[in-house]
Amino acid sequence: MLWLSALLAVVFGISVFLGRYPAPGFMPLERLFSDEMARSLLLNLRLPRLLTALLLGMSLAASGAVFQMIFGNPLVEPGFLGVSQGAAFGAAFSIIFLSNTAWAVQVFAAIFACLGLGFSYLLARRVRYGGWVLRLVLAGIAVSALFSAGVGVLKYIADPLSQLPEITFWLLGSLTSLTWPQFWAILPAVTLGLFVAFQMRWRLNLLSLSDETAFSLGAAPGWERTLLLVVVVIATSAVISVAGMVGWIGLIIPHIARRIFGADARYSLPGSMLIGAIFAILCDDLARVMFAGEIPLGILTSLIGAAIFMLLMMRPQVAVKQ
Amino acid sequence: MRNKILSFLLFFVLLTGAACSPQVAPTAVASTAPPATQAATVAPEPRRLRVLAAASLTESLTELGQLFESQNPGVTVSFQFADSEQLAGQLEQGQAADVFASASKKYMDAAVAAGRVIKYDPKTFVSNRLVVIFPKDNPAGLQELKDLAQAGLKLNLVDSSLPVGQSALDFLEKASKDEQFGAGFSAEVLQNVIAYENDAQAVVTKVSSGEAQAGIVYVSDLRADVAQKIASLEIPDSLNATVPYPIAAIADSQSPDLAAAFVSLVLSAPGQQLLAKYNFIPAVTGSASSAGFMVTDALGRAVRFEKAPERIVLAGKGLFMVADAIYLFPEAGQRIVALSSTNQGTGNFIPLIDPAFSAKITLDSSAGAEQIAAAQPDCVIMKSSNANSLGKALEAVKIPVVYLDFETPEQYPRDLKTLGQLFQNPEQAARLSAYFQDKADAIAQAVSGLTEAQKPRTLLLYYSEKDGAVAFNVPPMGWMQTLEIKTAGGAPVWADANPGSGWTKVNFEQVAAWNPDVIFVVAYSSPINEVTAMLKADPQWKNLKAVQENRLYGFATDVYSWDQPDTRWILGLAWVAGKLHPDLFPDLDITQTAQAFYQDLYGMDQATFQKSILPEFKGDLP
User: Fold this and answer.
1) Whole-angstrom Cα distance, residue B511 to residue B459?
2) A97 CB near a chain B CB, below 8 Å?
3) What is the DSSP letter of A28?
4) In this predicted complex, what is the ipTM?
5) A37/B contact by beta carbon, under 8 A
6) Residue B160's Cα: distance from chain center in Å?
7) According to the 3-state scheme, what is the secondary structure of A230-280?
8) Which run of H or E residues covers position B463?
9) Torsion of CA A298, A304, A309, A310, to 10 degrees
10) Taking CB atoms and an 8 Å limit, are B500 and A156 in contact across chains?
11) Are B403 and B302 in contact (CB under 8 A)?
12) How many angstroms separate the CA atoms of B318 and B403, rounded?
């Protein structure tokens, strides 16, 4: 765990000096002292952006880990259970009808994300065929599709000059133009979510068992599960509200973490957070440094994430240990 | 295994990172041409101009008076400097005068009320603002405004019965409401006051002699003779009181021509520069480049520039239409150092009008803030739709951003005015606004006699082949395309079909149901002539009235299509009007009109037009 933290610190430290100013690649250290623009870019753009990428990776990976354990399903992540799409719908709804301020977007994203999750869960319980894993995935697909359609309708209504670019940009997922105010706006919700999840990490092991077993081991499975799910959904929708839809981190990172640390959530959850943060920072480095025009972050995480996922699946010894 | 996964990750990062190519380094550009100087008028016989002015203007206006006398041989300027209140009183009692320059709006209003000045005549010519002054050796060690509250500081203020004294108290009051200063700030500062003087000069004298350790006065109170001994702390705009000084010619002046000339000298660039020398803040935007100027943009933001920007970057998405409007200003070409793509897929217009285009940096239209900062801009211009995705980040690193729209005819004069401020060329902005307005008015006038029944039922379709699927789209009611057809005397048939605010798809059944008299087709990324030929040959389309009567037109296009809110909209309007009502515009020669447009607006000579624009003519153009 310690070496992962150290790696995160190193990646973060290097990334701060990585960018397209004054030329693509590394910015020499002495430039910071001689060039005010370099200093300003580093402090006002790169730093908040990297910190947000860090929170983004941590939140998505943590919520993926929590989802996968609680639902006993290695195939779920926020994007598969209507959470991301719900958050997207809530945010787009807020941008068009209410207000484009960070707080309003965040609150609406969180409300609709919780609705999406709740709806997926209820729907999965009502589905009459298939196992729990399949039902949950099916319900998630249906609910996600519903919200995606809703986002489509909102895009149709949106003003193509002022609102539509905002929504489209945001659906692809990107940290472009991220500045301190946005970082501060999401910090409380993300800190709360991550802190509660971290504190409950060992209970997560109990909660992943069947209700009877968990209860006999001293957990109150119903409300504790709800609490955990709600806090990670709040953290996720907060980061989604500023970064847009960044996929695959929530699915792939917990798998990697479990391979390294085993299924015990006491280690795999913080491990997920750290690896998620590293992964998000590296992907964002690519997004902002590789080409003169920025590549949407969501595309990169999906591309790399899906590639790793395929790789993991093809390894015969991979199995999710409960 | 675990290490393998991570090393795979790192490998991927390094691999893709290595693929990135270096970017062209920014290049230097030539600086701008000097502003035009004021022409002097000649007055033969000896005449006198009587100016009543506030006492604080004594030194500055006296020098301006000498300048005026040198520009107008035979004219003597006589000044009376006194309290504004006293001067307003004299005007009320009927004292003869030609010009009144007041230190406060209140007393100018009194002169207006007395009937000596015409109501809308007064113009703000300078403003004044508070500043904290202290002796140069800084015995109290003042570093920031908060230090005014440090115990034992010897502070000197002006009595609150005078405007400057009251302004100082207002500043302290405002600061106390600011969290940075704390609620007790005002009280703590006032405990430090050693004396309240009866005029500002007394404060300046005491501070310069070191008798007081700090004082609060107007910047214009800082006399040149003590400037060496005094340092100052700026008070931010949010806490400062900006006091405007109005000037006006007296309504019953004996020499109205001289009075008007004097006022315009005060408001001119040399006049404003002279006033700035005496620490007044010039009020006329764009005239006093030494003291900075303000630009108000499409989002209503006021952007301050210390000097005329000379490394302008045009950035963001949807740029080409805005870029064409920016290049209407002759200064633009030499000041722009980088711009994002202006090619809509069919060509690039900017290289035709900017001989230095090849030396400019080409940015990706999704270039981020860092990429733009690498061009070292002192001003970035973009469409306002980029505000959130790009503008905010640039503002965060203190690069001034000016937003423009240029989307509708109404926004044209507003955005031209913004550019006029930015390039300090308001005359060009006014000329261009009038140009567009006159051309549009002439067409609106010509079709104004038409009844609704005489207006052809018109459809405008945008043919798109996005994602391999052919689609026909209609624009919303508020867009330029719709407005062009309405202004040119057409009746858009699709009014109910597009309640949204962007292009909306319609199918052929709907087009057939409308069966319009006239159809205009635009195609931004496909060759328009092929599209119209294909549609005219289509057996289904052949049943449409417009096709049968040969009134399906490919929209006029040169480098860009004329239907868009580009500067060419005015050409598009003339062309649509000619197609809808050939009887009303029998003399319309569209090639001639286009040539005049490029000549008038871009200074393009006939040979270039023949060589570069004419071959690009597409759609239903001769």
Assistant:
1) 8
2) no
3) P
4) 0.78
5) yes
6) 38
7) HHHHHHHHHHHHHHCCCCCHHHHHHHHHHHHHCCCHHHHHHHHHHHHHHHH
8) strand B457-464
9) 120
10) yes
11) no
12) 12
Give the nearest chain A residue to B407 (CA atoms). Answer: A161
- B428-452 tens-digit pLDDT: 888 899 999 999 999 999 999 999 9
What is the C-alpha to C-alpha distance for residues B618 and B137, in angstroms, rounded to an integer?
73
Per residue of chain A (322 residues), give pLDDT as tens.
889 999 999 999 999 998 888 778 888 888 888 888 888 888 888 999 999 999 999 999 999 999 888 887 777 777 778 888 898 899 888 888 887 777 888 889 889 999 998 898 899 888 887 777 788 888 888 999 999 899 888 887 777 666 776 677 677 788 887 889 889 989 999 999 999 999 988 888 887 777 777 777 776 777 888 888 889 989 998 898 888 888 889 889 998 898 888 888 889 999 999 999 999 999 999 988 888 778 888 889 989 988 988 887 777 654 544 4
Instruction: Tell me whether residues A290 and B16 touch, CB distance under 8 A.
Output: yes
Q: How many C-beta neighbours within 10 Å does residue B421 have?
A: 22
Which run of H or of E encompasses B379?
strand B379-383
Q: What is the DSSP string of B108-171?
A: HHHHHHTTSS-TT--EEEEEEEEEEEEETT-TT---SGGGGGSTT--EEEE-TTSHHHHHHHHH
What are the distances in angstroms from CA B598 to CA A249, B328, B592? 54, 10, 10
Q: Is the peptide bond before A22 cis (omega within 30 degrees of 0)?
A: yes
Helix axes B256-267, B58-71, angle to 10 degrees: 120
Please give, rounded to a whole number of angstroms, the shortest distance from the CA of B19 to a CA of chain A.
7
Is residue A303 less than 8 Å (CB to CB) from chain B?
no
Instruction: Note whether A167 and A89 are within 8 A (CB).
Output: no
β-strands B155-158, B214-218 pairing? parallel
